[in-house]
Design brief:
414 residues; alpha+beta; 4-stranded antiparallel beta sheet; 26% strand
Amino acid sequence: MAEPVLMPQVGQDIKTARIVDWVKKENQPVKKGEVIAVVESDKAAFEVEAYTAGVLLKILHAEGQEVEVLTPIAYIGQPGEKIEDGGQKTEDGRQTTEGGQQRTQDGGQKTEAAGAGPAIQDRLAVSPSARRLAQEKGVDPATVAGTGPGGRITKEDILAAARSVPARACEEAATVKSEVPGGHSELQTSSDDTVVAFTPMRACIAQRLTRSKQTIPHFYLSMDVDMSEMVTWRRQFNERSQTKVTVTDMIVQAVVKALSQFGRMNAHVEPDRIVLKRAVNIGVAVAVDDGLIVPVVADADKKSLAQISAAVRENAEAARAGRLKPQALGGFTVTNLGMFAVDTFVPVINPPEAAILAVGAVQKKPVVVGDRIVARDLMTMVLACDHRAVDGTYAAQFLGKIKEHLENPDSLEE
């Protein structure tokens, strides 16, 4: 049977993506792993690979079209093979078999297993159209009782909930003026000013980080690390290895080691629960034109330092070229501004993650050792945490474990 090619889930909050380019055309042969299309979200472009070999039998959406994630965009099969509907489409557009299983993009079957930690939107069973309407109407789907099959929340349920909001509350909300200018009418401009509209990426960043600061109870811990041994160790490692590791690579490895003992830091936080992630996927922030992308080093706990270094470098190059491939969801993020001579900074949590680590520059500073003042290579770390998921003591111990690994670099290769 012909296999569907699904629009990949190209971001944690991305519901749709645009088809930019069909690299392969209909009836052309494709190899497994070969790039067949390029799609883009509001933040980046991604390559779509063929997960099976065959012929590109049918393209379902033209270039420029916006398509919901996890819905078919094409079919791959054998020459002359007919495209059959191998299952029914669910309301969110994904293919299901008679047993209720979802066909994943790697051709396997994914069942809705209890306790497997499904995303909140799946658990709430909200159709994409109903979710968009809820955002427009200001309705929280978690407060709505679904009347659709299996308790699924429909557009009609959202409309009914919106109508049930007292008119007086709406009027009061309309009269409240935000302390932060949110509309063009509140801004004073002159003919000398240049008004620059948000790009889609900038708008996406603004939306996500505003939501993070407004809804996540951040708390922060800072700690200095003596990187003197690390500086020497890194130089010696690079002299004997073909892979040239960076300070960021070593910090990522130290984080991975620490997460093995502090699993609560590798988590996604939802309104009523915490999902402890089994996979150790570390996001490393990368600056791109007019924005920021956080590519993920997947299964970092299964990689050596050299492999982590290669993954970080490849991700950064792909992000800056606008050719990132669809990636796993991150569980923890590292951001480093040390290369810009920044001593310290306070990061914003990348939702739905529970924490983010910010690191500054490694700088020579005077340190008291015994009765002497000596110059040491110091670096400041700042850990931002979601207080719903972790408390100060636990986070402090986690940060201390990262410091321990960085100050004892031999532990990174154990």
